[in-house]
Amino acid sequence: MVEEKENVAASGQETVSKKGAKKQAKAAKKAEQKAENAAANAAENAAGENAVDHAASRYGVSEMIQSKDKRSEREFLLVPELSKHVDKGLVWVRGRVHTTRAKGKQCFLVLRQQSSTVQCILAVGDVISKQMIKFAGNIPKESIIDIQAKPIGVPIKIESCTEQFVELCVEQLFVISQAKPQLPLQIEDAARPENPDDAEGLNIRVNQDTRLDNRVLDLRTPANQAIFRLEAGVCRLFRDILTDKGFTEIHTPKIISAASEGGANVFTVSYFKDSAYLAQSPQLYKQMAIAADFDKVFTVGAVFRAEDSNTHRHLTEFVGLDLEMAFKYHYHEVLHTIGNTFTAIFKGLRDNYSREIEAVGQQYKVDAFKFLEPPLILQFSEGVAMLREAGVETGDEEDLSTPNEKLLGRLVKAKYDTDFYILDKFPLAIRPFYTMPDPNNPIYSNSYDMFMRGEEILSGAQRIHDPEYLMERAKHHGIDTTKIAAYIESFRYGCPPHAGGGIGMERVVMLYLGLDNIRKTSMFPRDPKRLTP
Predict the structure, then answer these.
(1) What DSSP designation does 482 have?
(2) Which has fewest Cβ within 10 Å: 120, 379, 419, 444?
(3) Active site (annotated) includes residue 350
(4) pLDDT value, residue 25
(5) Cross-strand bridge partners of residue 226
């Protein structure tokens, strides 16, 4: 019996031993095959690298462009134009390397021009060498390259590019400006849609400070490209609409001898042996232009406010869109002109910048901006009454706080279905010294604010054009009249009644698009904590 057990045990050990031997043999064979493949690949790569590169003249790093020659024989196309040149021969295109991926004998490269992208392909053959594939695959993202390629149609839609039915078969490729291999932020991450409701989405975000510290990279995202093209559209529409209404564009000093708005929110600068101030607005000079018989004027320029406000809507430097206009008998002539100008701007953006609005919507949630024609006008007292009905305690002569502004905007939207409205007849106590009081009620003034999505974007009023009354109001506000003597003197030679307003351009764009922070609409924002880049 014992002998039988010993025989069975020996037999089992022999079986295990045979299985182990087979397993070892199989592993050894696999390792040997792997080594052979590696050696073959190494030999092939070495052979490839040592082989004559038949594409050597077709790729490389271009010498620095110093305007040595014109290369007028190279006619470059824009990416959106490529579909018109499918199967029509070779073309030249310049753009940035958005992504690149080399595998085996092929390299796929996405070329980006501003917001437009196209897929490029390189494949080893009579024209392209393995060395050229390796070179293309190693070009750092965001480098600028020139390529010569054949545009060809593709049967399957390329979802990852804006040009979805054409790709470029590359024949020549030259690096014009090489980017650093390590970027402080990835364009794909900076362009990722912001959707906090999407729990399953990629939670990769580039924070605001990283974006602003590396603004040149951040500005390359499709949404930012669209935002600042739309912003240019606001300025163009403002200029064109007012020019068509008979306005003249003027340019006013930004270094002035006295605070244009009064108060302490002004930057002081050294001016030779004296001190000067950065203009809080072009107010005084717009009025002087009216006194000089220009009748209707506007200006586009920098405005400076030394307000230590670290909010979503305040900047210490912004672009002011200002206008001033003489009227015959009532300042509402001007109020309606400004209101209708806004309506025309909103219509112009809606009709001419739909692509830009759509591009912003790819990254940020954009609700269509609603407005009435003609615009809604409410009295300040009506706004206060609406707030009180909603349970808010506010005084008759108290300025609207930011929360109350926003609440009133929501109440107006619910009642009138508009994101834009005008609030008229503000309390005199909260307006600048040059504001004309209401002749029928000394508590109020002939002044108005205009709002988008519940936030103020314009402040305006009828100005005092009588010099003695202006002196009286300036002294009431504690302003040193000797420093605004030239301003007051300009009204002693006869000046028509006039009114106007100042608009914050960045705030208009932010609110039109429904964005959450004004720094998104300022190309290089300035606030109390940021002076660079």
Answers:
(1) G
(2) 379
(3) no
(4) 75
(5) none
- Say whether pLDDT at 360 is over 60: yes
Indicate which residue of 314, 350, 526, 530 is catalytic: 314
User: Could you tell me which of 153, 133, 110 has the C-alpha nearest to residue 53?
Assistant: 133
**What is the Cα Rg of the chain in Å?**
34
Concerning whether 477 is annotated as a catalytic residue, the answer is: no
- Using the predicted structure, report yes or no on whether residue 60 has a pLDDT greater than 70: yes
Q: Predicted confidence band at 6 (pLDDT cuts at 50, 70, 90)?
A: low
- Give the pairing type, strands 106-113 and 91-103: antiparallel
431 part of the active site: no
Sequence-distant (6+) residues with CB within 8 A of 293 are none
Q: Which of 445, 456, 519, 522 is catalytic?
A: 456
Q: Pull the structure tokens for residue 523.
A: 């190309």
Q: Quick one: pLDDT at residue 45?
A: 56
State the pTM of this model: 0.86
Mean pLDDT of 408-417: 97
Q: Which residue has the higher pLDDT, 399 or 204?
A: 399
Q: Is 195 exposed, middle or buried (0-12, 13-18, 19+ CB in 10 A)?
A: exposed
Which of 459, 473, 519, 522 is the catalytic position?
A: 459
Mark whether 456 is an active-site residue: yes
The pLDDT of residue 198 is 60
Looking at 465, 498, 507, 519, which residue is catalytic?
A: 507
Ramachandran angles phi, psi of 256, nearest 5°:
-130, 165
Active site residue 313: yes
Instruction: Summarize the confidence of residues 373-391 as an average pLDDT.
Output: 95
* Chain mean pLDDT for the chain: 91
Nearest residue to 153 via CA among 167, 132, 171: 167
Helices marked H in 301-457: 332-352, 354-363, 380-389, 402-416
- CA-to-CA distance for 288 and 434, rounded, in angstroms? 13
307 catalytically annotated: yes
Helices 354-363 & 222-244, crossing angle to 10 degrees? 150
Asked if 399 contacts 383 with a C-beta cutoff of 8 angstroms, the reply is: no
Catalytic residue among 81, 171, 307, 317: 307
Structure tokens at 350: 């809606």
